[in-house]
Amino acid sequence: MVNVITSFSRITILSFVLIFTLIDLVQIFEYKLNEAVYSILSTIQSVMVVLFLFNGTFVLFMAKEDAGMIMLGIFTCIFFVGFYVAVYRLSDFVPRALINNMFLFISFGIIALARLKTEFAAKHMIFLFITLVISLLVIMGLKYVDRIERFMYIFAIVGIILLLIVAFFGQVENGAKLSFAAGPIRFQPSEFIKLSFLFFISGCIVTFKDMRGFLIASIGSAVHVVALVLARDLGTALIFLTAYVFVMFIAYKNYIVLSLEIGVATIGGILAYHYFPHIQTRFIAWTDPLSVVDDKGYQISQSLFAIGTGGWLGSGLNKGMPNKIPVVTMDFIFAAISEEMGAIVGVCLIVCFACTVMLILNAAFNCNNSFYMLVSSGIAVLFAVQTILNIGGVIKFIPSTGVTLPFISYGGNSLLSLMLCFLIVSCSNNLYFDSRQGRRHDR
């Protein structure tokens, strides 16, 4: 009976995800859609997310005979309702399409983690509620910060100091210093400094409105990146650098400067390859993983085997062997999803990530103030680059960088950072406060 349900669920899961994805391709034109059409499409997406979530948790309940699987689905839905209510109270416009995408990714994360390691799924659920409460407190605080761009230097100084602390005193993980621990709590500052970094460069641009803003933002960005290089956290350094390049281009639209920045970044990448052994190791594993399958290429080889074994429709939940992949709950969770849910679901997931970037940019370009327009644009870039680096590494498109897959990979630090980013985008029209003019569109 379990085998029949698992086999049939491959089709139902694919159907739910495919319908969601097709609607997503329409929703990226949300500002051109009729309000009634937008509402209907968003409602259908919400239903697809809930059906997908309970389909996955029910199959795992049947396979593992663990009632906790159903409870995970119920608590995830409670979280969804809480998030919706919070955004509705904080913002004039609720970007339902964007929020639905976030809910889909969270559902993928809960199902995948519950399949791989039940206790991780339970912890991830706890992280969801904790991060929501913390993020809401931060958002409510931001609404009362008068001209937030005035604090740009504070954002830069705090971020750089934290990165340097990690560079000199952090714990080494896979060749890089990423975090430090305080008892059972593991703190990874770079996840939160992504946001303070965007606040800094956006503040420079909005405050000076000329080349002074460009120079100050460039110097501050360079120091951030150097601190990350000292920590050998080159994946995050690349994310910071890319965010800086594109936010600067959005602000100044100068192709010459863009070309110079890309040139400098390319030179930096070449130097990083020559001076950091763990980067060379990853390149060897990328170029020919089977030649070093017993050592450096084991992880990527197992990832490719898993995706290939799953085929187009997948092996079915709890029917594959994703736990053979090292660090599967974090860096390589996309391979686990593709193995058991199928390559078509994997492609749909990639399309949904791309649509999410477009939806964030839609929100940014329709923001009523320059500061949060730039911040939201930067968030879109951060989200896009992080997704590309993760999935690209999993499918051997690029060398593995060790970054997590947004909202899906296990980890409280990444989850809190992303939750805060999405709340900022969702409430961007209601956050900026200038005591000299009052808040625009405040409810």
TrEMBL record:
One Pfam family, short name: FTSW_RODA_SPOVE
InterPro entries: FtsW/RodA (IPR001182)
Name this protein carries in UniProt: Cell division protein FtsW
GO molecular function, one term: lipid-linked peptidoglycan transporter activity
Entry annotated with the keyword Cell cycle: yes
Major location category of this protein: membrane
Species of origin: Pseudobutyrivibrio ruminis
PANTHER family membership: CELL CYCLE PROTEIN, PEPTIDOGLYCAN GLYCOSYLTRANSFERASE RODA
Subcellular location: Membrane
